[in-house]
Design a protein that fits this description.
Elements: H1 3-21, E1 78-79, E2 88-89, H2 90-93, H3 112-115, H4 125-129, H5 147-159, H6 168-174, H7 177-188, E3 196-200, E4 203-205, E5 207-209, E6 215-217, E7 223-225, E8 231-234, H8 237-241, E9 249-253, H9 257-267, H10 277-280, H11 298-310, H12 319-326, H13 330-340
Parallel strand pairs: 3-9
Antiparallel strand pairs: 1-2, 4-7, 5-6, 8-9
Helix pairs in contact: 5-6, 5-7, 9-13, 11-12, 11-13
Bound molecules: heme C (HEC) (2 copies).
Length: 345
């Protein structure tokens, strides 16, 4: 083994050891990018094999860790984000039981479960959903969703009616009702912020899925064809990797998606009864028990539409989405979620 390649591997070994000590499932840990291993082969996808029938779970929406990773960064290097006086090591940013809190003055005090979680399976909610509640494309936004809606989702993860084998099945199963309520009340009180920019294009920066399944640009200036998918990359990679709660994402979508999506959202995907405003509110920002879908990650929203289709999201409220997704093609899902990402949350 050459010295050039053994160094990153050594660093990775350190990161793995640190994460293992924190009790995390290393291969899919939402670690800081760069502290992610240069694995030779891709770790197994957390998702079940393809479903028979017309519906699919495309990889662009069900994010995975890529086999090829750029060189790892030092887990002990200190990072910061604009406007914060704090610094943290990469390893601290990746700690599942102590969410980095870059701007404690900008939010109400976090309940224990949001800030620290509870070992071994309840990871601190703010690690992935961020202290702004806006989350990353591989997780989800919670800011401003109703307590009732979030409590239903936690119950559905627990019962198995809603499946997320990557993360929330395990976390939701271990979370008590009291913890879920404390977290839901805290996230519900946060005002969601503008998080997405949408760019219609036919090529994107070359990109890969890091150890936490977030897609990041490959170092350098290479591009790759977009094709029939959505790719979401950070507006600022270093900030997103440091879990900066105020640094959003760019959704690269195929040309023509936004106008096509706008028409589907307005007129419905299967007749007027499926027009989104009927249930999601006049600005699609949600109601007491229906979630807001405006301004969210297009990839997160697309993943949910596929989940409704394949039956991996089948809680008591999901029946209302059945007719909406029944006839949606991959092109429709791309168009609708691209348009939703252009709206104010
Ligand atoms: C390790 C990362 C991670 C942590 C920590 C985490 N989540 Fe999640 N969460 C996710 C992912 C990934 C999803 C998206 C699941 C999917 O795609 O269906 C999600 C989705 C959710 C949803 C559904 C949102 C919606 O709009 O339907 C809720 C509610 C939620 N999480 C609550 C929590 C709570 C409460 C905690 C803390 C106890 C928590 N999460 C901790 C990764 C995480
Ligand atoms: C008849 C009522 C109804 C209509 C019409 C409807 N929805 Fe929904 N939608 C719901 C409900 C209820 C949920 C929550 C389901 C659950 O609890 O699992 C939901 C959930 C969703 C979610 C998941 C959000 C999240 O945070 O996880 C997305 C995305 C979505 N809808 C998109 C759409 C789009 C796009 C349209 C229009 C083309 C639409 N919906 C039309 C009732 C509706």
């Amino acid at each position: 083994m050459s010295t050039a390649s053994s160094r990153p591997i050594l660093l990775l070994a350190i990161v793995f050891a640190t994460l293992a000590a924190q009790g995390s499932d290393v291969w899919s840990a939402e670690t800081p990018t760069a502290a992610t291993p240069a694995a030779a082969t891709a770790p197994p996808s957390p998702y079940p094999p393809p479903v028979p029938g017309p519906y699919v779970r495309p990889e662009w929406a069900f994010l995975t860790t890529s086999a090829q990773q750029p060189a790892a960064e030092d887990p002990n290097a200190r990072v910061t984000v604009p406007g914060s006086k704090l610094t943290h090591t990469n390893a601290e940013v990746g700690n599942f039981f102590a969410a980095v809190d870059w701007h404690p003055e900008r939010h109400a005090p976090m309940p224990e479960v949001v800030a620290k979680g509870r070992k071994p399976d309840v990871y601190a909610c703010a690690v992935c959903h961020l202290t702004s509640g806006m989350g990353h494309p591989e997780s989800s936004h919670l800011a401003g969703q109703s307590v009732q809606y979030m409590m239903q989702q936690m119950a559905d993860f627990k019962s198995g009616a809603r499946k997320d084998p990557a993360r929330m099945t395990r976390i939701g199963t271990a979370t008590t009702e009291e913890e879920a309520r404390a977290a839901a009340e805290w996230f519900a009180a946060i005002k969601p912020i503008r998080w997405m920019k949408v760019v219609e294009t036919d090529k994107v920066p070359r990109n890969y899925g890091n150890g936490g399944r977030m897609r990041l640009p490959w170092p350098g200036k290479e591009t790759e064809p977009l094709g029939k998918r959505i790719v979401e990359l950070p507006q600022d990679t270093a900030r997103a990797v440091a879990r900066d709660p105020y640094s959003g994402f760019v959704a690269y979508v195929p040309k023509g998606s936004v106008a096509r999506g706008k028409a589907l959202v307005k007129n419905g995907t299967d007749g007027a009864a499926t027009a989104c405003v009927l249930c999601h509110g006049p600005k699609l920002q949600g109601t007491a028990d229906v979630p807001g879908i405006a301004g969210t990650s297009a990839i997160y929203a697309a993943r949910q539409l596929y989940n409704f289709q394949v039956g991996d999201r089948a809680g008591p409220q999901s029946a209302l989405m059945k007719a909406v997704v029944a006839k949606m093609t991959e092109d429709d899902i791309i168009a609708v979620t691209a348009y939703l990402a252009t709206l104010d949350p």
